[in-house]
Every structure is written in C-alpha cells, then in structure tokens.
Amino acid sequence: MKRFLLVPAMTAAIIAITAGAAYASQYIAYEGRGFTGRSVVIDACGVSNIPFNGSYKWYGDGQSGRMYNQRDAKGVMHFELASNRNAEQRTPVGWKSIFIVC
Questions:
Q1: What InterPro entries does the annotation carry (predicted)?
Q2: Residue numbers of the domain that contains 66
Q3: Sheet holding 86-89: strands in order across?
Q4: Using CA atoms, how far apart are residues 4 and 69, in angstroms rounded to an integer?
Q5: 60 belongs to a structural domain
Q6: Is residue 85 part of a domain?
Q7: Is residue 83 part of a domain?
Q8: Mean pLDDT for each consecutive 10-residue tract of the chain (102 residues)?
Q9: What's the number of domains the chain is made of?
Q10: For residue 29, with 0-12 CB atoms within 10 Å meaning exposed, 13-18 middle and 19 or more buried, which class applies?
Q11: What's 94's domain CATH number?
C-alpha cells in the first residue's frame, strides 16, 4: 500500500520541478553583432557577470533583469528588462552584469 502512495508523490514532485524550470527569464549574450559568434545563456537568480557584449536577447518570463555597467552588479542600475516582455538588441551594449530578480 505504501508503494501506491510513494509513486504519485514522486511524480508530482518531478512535475513541479520541471514546470518551475521551464518558466524562467533568460538573458542570452552574444559575442558578435546581430546575434553571432559564441553565446551564453544566463538564467540564474541573483548576480551574473556578462562575458559577451556584441548583442543580446531577453526572454522575460516572470523575473526582471537589472542591468549594470560594472561587474558584480556594482554601482547604479542602468536599465531594467521587464519580467513580462521580450527584448533584443543587434548592436553592442555596455552592460557588464545582470541581477535577475527572483
């Protein structure tokens, strides 16, 4: 009888974890203009340094992104990417770090 209770509980936990991971804002930094070259996806909560500044895409899916012109989110926030809208720029940006608000 315990076996029957454990399987639904484990299934529910897996579904909850998967669903949570599927809905997270993402900042994609590209090495070159026009979304070319190497890229990195940043979707972790908190501070992340941005290694590429050639262009970017933002997929706002629940969390906003605070953009800084200095590493480690130091100094004054320069811009905030919306939590509910996508954005992109095909030309270089000066942002050095992002703080994803979770």
A1: Antimic/Inh_G_crystallin-like, Antimicrobial_MiAMP1, G_crystallin-like
A2: 25-101
A3: 36-42, 26-32, 55-59, 86-89
A4: 54
A5: yes
A6: yes
A7: yes
A8: 44 42 84 98 97 98 97 97 98 98 96
A9: 1
A10: buried
A11: 2.60.20.30
